[in-house]
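An example makes the point: we let one protein speak, the chain in one-letter code, the fold tokenised, and here it is:
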Amino acid sequence: MTLTMAATFIVVLDTTIANVALPHMQAALSASPDTISWVLTSYILASAVALPLTGWLSARLGRRMLFTVAVAGFTISSALCGVANSLTTMVAARLIQGLCGAVLAPMSQAIMYDINPPEKHVQAMTLWGLVIMVGPILGPVVGGYLTDNFNWRWVFYINVPIGIVTAIGGWLLLSGGKQAGRRFDLTGFVLLATALCSMQLLLDRGVQLDWFDATEIWVELGICLMTSWMFIVHTVTTKDTVLPRALFADRNFVTACVSIFVLGGILMAGAALVAPMLQALLGYPVLLAGVLTAPRGVGTMAGMLLAGRLARIIDPRVPILTGMALLALSLWMMTGFDLQMDQRPIIVTGLIQGLGLGLVVLPMNLLALSTLSSALRTDAASLYNLMRSIGGSVAISLMTALIARNTQVSHSTLGGHLSQTRLPFLGQGIFEQLGFDGAAITQMMNSEVTRQAVMIAYLDDYYVMMWAAIAVMPLIFVMRRSRADLPDVVVDAH
């Protein structure tokens, strides 16, 4: 159990730990602001491509071999990231990291399920889910501390000792050989990988290229739509596919995938928005901004522990709806943020939002997989992870684009109130007459207008996420209760 949790922790930690170190990497690797983003993009792309392969690889190589190779590959690539002296080396190492890390998440889940007796499944998956949920939240805190007190390279070196111990332990302690797996669906895999890569490139590059004003974005959109349609047709008409058709016939699983797409977006976008807002608008240093996001992790831990206790007592849909309501409440409270607030609103909303997420994730995944056969569980866990990952990517890109657009709109609106009609002294040279630099004062006023406009844009994002959380709530009533099956399921809280 300790081995699988350690492997899972370093993987999920790496999804966010590198974010705060990007400015330092940019200088060390002589990269531009546009190209340094590939440090994050390459990891996400590789993860998206590798996730659908987990079920086939597990049957082909065996659990013991796949787990050990994946941990070893993740550890070696982490070391390569730490010693990288060029952007090319860094991106290549991050690609390997993403490939190996994506395989580890559902693999660790399956191992945790099998090494525990049926009566311990909910408790074991609760503990495992805590690592999955808290890891990304701790990432900015750990990354900020290592970057401020040591060097950005330690953001990657921290994985090496944990990875070495985990790889050795996995080889010595795990069991599980090759299984009779289905035929590898090369056509389906290529179509799915192409669709996911083009979509991820569209989302990442769209912000930089002003979206559909650039030909590249149209090309990526066309490739994404074309290959997605071809993949759907291929899946419907082919016997052995990379994602079994039986998954899409299960009402609980399909509903949960849609829900986790939205909730994963709120989870990742929320983490991606708050820390930069605290640094850029409220003037908090990197480490303190990360610490102020930690209450979200505390709330998540409390929510998951509570959900684990409630799983056998009440209808799982009750804590899910309660958690979504708390999530929507926290986002509504965040729409009241202002530039003069102290730390209290940040801490309170973080605790409430974390509690809501914790109440949702565990019972949601119990319901999602409780009606699936054991033969579909690894593929189901992989697809579930994939939907969460895609939801996060879409939400982050959408929220970033909305911030850029709404900042311009709000700046124009606020700036209209600073015209000579409303403030006649602006055109009378009164600043110069009083001995002040009129141009400097005007620039200061423009900077403050921009600051206010950016804050309004953040609040607009919180409104959008609040309504997204509310919109997904009715879907819970579509899911079947299936309480009798809950102790015998695989849970994926990632």
User: Anything to note?
Assistant: The chain has 19 helices and no strands. Confidence is low (pLDDT under 50) at residues 483-494. The chain has three domains: 1-182, 185-241, 246-494. Residues 377-415 form the longest helix (39 residues).
